[in-house]
Write a structure and sequence with these properties.
It contains 9 helices and no strands. The protein is globular and about 60 Å long. By secondary structure, it is mainly alpha-helical. The chain has a single domain, classed as Vanadium-containing Chloroperoxidase, domain 1.
């Protein structure tokens, strides 16, 4: 996910995200490269697909033997389904609205619903079949690559982590939101592999897709915030000096 260096500036009164073009570009290029590598690998049957199969089989055996962890991860994965992630985004948007953070709401809307649409298009493009087992824990008719759960968790918790880091007054306060967001994204992603509905490369690709899309959304909203500070509401009294002109 884009880190606090992508969004944090000394000016804290702006309603929208701050904008560091180089950091955003670095995130976009790195995440895009990872996604492209995985996309080529899974479509050409590269050796990583063998690792995918081995990891999926090992986790499937473990999941059948551990009902407690399986139940907890089932709950987590259902909460972060497409309807669940959109509901969480609505709750977050309402809270941001009450804080007067109009541009952060725009960033959230662009990142979460927009990311879900992008993921649906990519799934149809690659049409990768999900892992197959004799006794599956979950059965889904949709395609596997890239993981929509990993994408959704990345963009949702990424936006919230960036906002929290933007408000923090200490270094620890700027780092902690990203640690918590990474922990949530990793757990959600692991749940998809553990329950046998995604390969390892699916969730890594979803993470990369989410980071790239999040960088694009935050950059676009930051540019809009710089050009239209009058729309930022009560939180938009100032514009960060490092925003583009």
């Amino acid at each position: 996910m884009p880190t606090s260096s992508t969004l944090h500036t000394p000016s804290r009164s702006i309603g929208g995200p701050a904008f560091h073009p180089r950091a955003a570009l670095a995130v976009l290029l790195f995440a895009g490269t990872v996604f492209a590598f995985l996309a080529v690998a899974v479509t050409t049957g590269a050796p990583i697909t063998l690792l995918d199969a081995d990891v999926a089989q090992w986790l499937h055996v473990h999941a059948h033997a551990n009902s407690s962890l399986r139940g907890a991860l089932l709950l987590l994965t259902h909460v972060h389904s497409t309807p669940g992630i959109l509901a969480l985004a609505v709750v977050a948007a309402i809270w941001l609205y009450r804080q007067g953070q109009r541009y952060w709401i725009l960033a959230l809307v662009a990142a979460v619903p927009g990311g879900q649409l992008l993921n649906a298009l990519l799934k149809q493009m690659f049409a990768r079949v999900r892992p197959q087992f004799a006794e599956p824990l979950l059965e889904l008719a949709t395609y596997s690559f890239p993981s929509g759960h990993a994408l959704g968790a990345t963009v949702l918790y990424g936006v919230l982590a960036c906002y929290a880091a933007r408000q923090a007054r200490s270094r620890a306060g700027r780092v902690l939101p990203f640690v918590l967001a990474l922990a949530m994204v990793a757990t959600v992603s692991f749940s998809r592999m553990y329950l046998g509905v995604h390969y390892l490369s699916d969730v890594v690709a979803g993470l990369a897709e989410g980071c790239a899309w999040l960088a694009l959304c935050l950059t676009g909203v930051a540019i809009l915030a710089r050009r239209r500070p009058d729309l930022a509401g009560r939180a938009g009294a100032a514009v960060p000096e490092d925003s583009p002109r």
